[in-house]
Each structure stands twice: as structure tokens, then as C-alpha cells.
Amino acid sequence: MSRQADPVVETPAGAVRGLRDGSGERYRALPYAAAPTGAGRFAPPAPHPGWSGVRDATRPSPTAPQPVRDFGRLDMAPYFGPGWVPGEEYLTVDVHTPAADGGRRPVMVFVHGGGFVTGSNRAALYDGRAFVRDGIVLVTVNYRLGIPGFLDLAGAPANRGLLDVLAALRWVHDTVGAFGGDPGNLTVFGQSAGATLTGALLATPEAEGLFQRAIIQSGNGTGAFTPEQARRVTTAAAAALGVAPTAEAFGAIPDERFLAVLPALAGLDLRTSTAMDPLAGLSLFSLVLPVQPADALADGPAGHVDLLIGTNTEEGRLYLVPQGDLESTTGADVLAVATRVHADPEAALARHRAARPDGTPGELRSALLGQALFESGTTRMARAHARISGGRTHVYSFGYRSTALEGRLGAAHTVELPFVFDIADEPWLHGDTRLLGPDPAPPGLAARVHGAWVAFATTGDPAWAPCTPQDFAVEAHSLNK
């Protein structure tokens, strides 16, 4: 296609040239904030200075500095994307739209997962063609990760990755009209860490008016660290780097050293006299808040926001099956997990054993992880939202079992994503070591899941009843076949 045929859009920061193809128009690497360099990596996101002329928006942006993550036999490249692609200007969004024609289409803003340390909007799973096909303007966001994004440091604002997402939402609210979107009909949605960030936005006063709906996929409304837990991580990181725990000292350290020191922090015990480890030892980075988002919803825009929220039925299997740990788990391993995430581990184990009288140690361990990482916080968030929103809380449970890894992966964490993005038939998702396994996806399931997301973003109704606000019951709609 000739350059003359490529679309050009005027934005407040300057003109951008994208690409037009059979799926609509795509504009990549659009900066919503200035590049975070040097000491600026530990500062709030600053406005981008803009540019003169027409900016090329046809190529993907760099990504936030991040380590390589290994999930054993399971190919997670479609989820994590290319990893760290060095470059200063990575606080960017991609916009995929039917047309930048002045239309007023629903807007969906996606916040990726990756344990607060990995991921980007370049991941293959976040293919926006189906959303654009269905009349949605899709925006995907990059944000700071790991030490620059979430380590709590003297002299730096907390939760800089969350501040990035908030800045991106402001950019979308002010700019998406130029791309054919309606800023008054905006849904923010995220998965895993991105879902936890989305939940935090519901409790953030500064987010008021920036979005009308939210979707939380396998997040954790009680996944934030307490200030005491955050100090433990900061102290350990500063000691490993040999510097003071301040933004000034960390600002002089290159990103490569931040990544190199991460293995030395693994295994840090975050249990305190008042809190258990909300992430079960799987990540040393999270939000840092005095009150969990699920308990602070009344402080933010949540009461005026429609919410779709849920989990997968076997979340914990992602952290055991690919590594070969499901079968090798012992009773001691199960107790160790229970001790990390429950104040009374024996009572917690008794409840899980009663619910799964024939469960193997690996299955009990998986259930403990799934509940601690996602299910408990999701239920608490759903109930809290139902109390204040007047029937705007829709809950789902995703139960389709992937046949990956000899059929053992099941309805694990991340398995719903190909169905949400309606790409479950893509060949690169199928095979024994790939996310959906060798079997074809159930006919129609992707259309139903994706269609529910589109309907919710358009009208606030995914086509099933909301939770009952009178008794705060969590009535999950099953999505499994």
C-alpha cells in the first residue's frame, strides 16, 4: 500500500501516520508520557513534549525493562511477548480502530499482565482484530515494571506503574475522539497484574470520570503489599545493589543491574504480624497501599462504574503443571503454601481437603494457589462493588480446560485470553506445549466470551444477571463450553 494511502491523524501532541488494512487502522507506539530515563524512571509520568511534522506510528515501541520468564514446558511467548526491547520511549499505547473518522465508538483500554515484572502490548495474544471487527476502538497500554514501576523508594511516588496507567487513561480520554472513539463510553480491562491495576483504579479518586466500565480478569482485589512488606523488598533490593534505598541512589543505576539483581531477591519472606504474602511468593512486586483496593472502593469511582469480574476455575495449575510440580508435590509442599498465605494453615488445609476428598497433594497445592492469588480477592472485590454500585456487578467463572501438557493444564491462569480476544483457532496456540493444547477450541466458545466482553463494553450488560446487591451474593456465570 502506498504511503499516500496510509491514514494520518491529528492529535494534541502532533500528527501521526498509521497503517490501514482489512482489519481497520492501526497506530503504534503513541507516547502518552515522556520517556522515563535516569532519575525520571522514579518520577511521576511527565507530559510528552510532542513533535513537529508527522510521526511514524507504523512500528511497535520498545518495551519496559524486564527479565526473561521461564514456564517450563509451556510456550508462554504469546503471553509475554518479545521481552525487553530496549529503548527509552516505551510509555506508549497502540490504537486499533475501525476508522479514524470522527465516529463515536465504544473504547476498550487493555492493561497487560505479567506479575508486575514482565509483559507488553506487543504480545501476540492481544490481537485486536476481533474487537475492531465488532466496532470497538481497542487501546493497549505499556507501563513501567519491576523496580522502576513498583519498588517503594524514599523520594519517589509509590505505584509508578499505576500512575502510568492513569496517565494513559487521561491520554485516551483526551485523544481517542481523533481515532473514532467515544471517550464517554470507555471500558478499562486487564488480566492478572493488569486486572489488579484495574481494580486499584476503581479505588483511585484521580480516576473519577475517566472510564465508565471495568473488566477484571483473574486479578486480586487484596493483592497489594502493606507498607511494611514493601519496605522489606526495598531493603533487600538496596542491599543487593549496595546503595541507599532512595530514588536518588537508584536513579544512577542502569536497568541492566536492576534485572540482574532480581534472582537474589527470590524467596523473600513477606509475612508480617498483620499480613500474609498476598502473592504467595510468586512476585516481589505489587501495588503498595495502606488499604486493599477491595476495601477502599468507596474512595474512588467504583460506585458509578459497571464491573465485569471473574476467574478461571483452575488458576493455580499454571504455576505447577508446566514445571512438572503437579505430580511431584508433597504434603510438605502443600503445607508450605498454606503457611505462606494463611494465618491458620491447618484450618485452610482442612477446608480444601473437605472440598476435594480425593485430591492429590498437587491438586490441593493448585487450589490453595488459585484461591490465594485470585479467587479470594476477586470475591471480596465483587461483594464490595455490589454493595455500592446498585446492581452493576457481573461475575463470571471460566472453566474450559486446555488439553496442553498431556491434558493436565486445564482451566489455568491465562487460558481465557484467546477466547476474550476471539483468536482461539490460531494455529500458534495449539499443540501439546502451547496454551490451548492439541485439541481444537470448543465451537462457539470464543464467540460467546468475546461477544459478552463486547456487549458489556457497549451497554454494560454481558447478557447475564448482575450480583444481587441486597445480600451481596456472588452469582458467577459459567463460561466453559
UniProtKB/TrEMBL annotation:
Q: Where is this region: Disordered?
A: 1-22, 38-68
GO MF annotations for this entry?
Answer: hydrolase activity
Per the database record, which ranges form the Carboxylesterase type B domain?
A: 6-463
- Read off the PROSITE patterns from this record: CARBOXYLESTERASE_B_1, LIPASE_GDXG_HIS
Enumerate the InterPro entries for this protein: AB_hydrolase_fold, CarbesteraseB, Carboxylesterase_B_AS, Lipase_GDXG_HIS_AS, Type-B_Carboxylest/Lipase
Q: Provide the top EC class.
A: hydrolase
- Presence of keyword Transmembrane helix: no
List keywords of the entry alphabetically. Hydrolase
Enzyme Commission identifier(s):
3.1.1.-
Q: Does the keyword Hydrolase apply?
A: yes
Question: What does the sequence similarity comment in the record state about its family?
Answer: Belongs to the type-B carboxylesterase/lipase family. Belongs to the 'GDXG' lipolytic enzyme family.
Kindly provide the name given to this protein in its UniProt entry: Carboxylic ester hydrolase
Instruction: State the organism of origin.
Output: Streptomyces spectabilis
